[in-house]
Amino acid sequence: MPEGGYLLWDGNCALCARCVGIVRRVARRPVDLRPFQQEPGLPAAVRERLRYEMVWAHANGEYSGGAKALVHLIREAGYGWIARALALPGVFWMVDRVYRWVARNRGPVCSTGAT
């Protein structure tokens, strides 16, 4: 069952845009994917996080970033079994490390115009 919410991502990042395109093509159900630059009312702390990680905005007003946002996205896209597997403690540790490495090194392939 979908948990609700939406993904905030860097609309100025070419890598991010390619990934969003893939999600749109393979999602089993509609997922709300929003470039954060088009969301003017975001709290300052969330805008700061978006400089270095994607953020899942939960329906209850809370936010999850990075690998946690990725797991929420995968679940919302209709791949609950994959999300559950990625959330396992040892697996999630690795997912988080890989996510952080990609996020740190995305500069060469995207413009990080986060504002």
Describe this structure in words.
- It is a single chain.
- The protein is an alpha+beta fold and 115 residues long.
- The chain has one domain (6-107): 3-Layer(aba) Sandwich (Glutaredoxin), CATH 3.40.30.
- The protein contains five helices and four strands, in the order βαβαββααα.
- It has a four-stranded mixed β-sheet, covered by helices on one side.
- The longest helix has 16 residues, at 89-104.
- It is globular, with a radius of gyration of 13 Å.
Describe the structure using short key phrases.
115 residues, alpha+beta, Glutaredoxin, four-stranded mixed beta sheet, 5 helices
Secondary-structure blueprint of this entry?
Elements (H helix, E strand, L loop, with lengths): L5 E4 L4 H13 L6 E3 L8 H6 L5 E3 L5 E3 L1 H10 L3 H7 L2 H16 L11
Parallel strand pairs: 1-2
Antiparallel strand pairs: 1-3, 3-4
Helix pairs in contact: 3-4
User: Gyration radius, to the nearest Å?
Assistant: 13 Å
Largest sheet: 4 strands, mixed
Number of contiguous helices: 5
Q: Output the CATH topology.
A: Glutaredoxin
Mean pLDDT across every amino acid position:
90
Sheet with most strands: strand arrangement: 2-1-3-4
Structural class of the helices, strands and pairings? alpha+beta
CATH class: Alpha Beta
Question: How many structural domains?
Answer: 1
Shape category: globular
Helix content: 40-55%
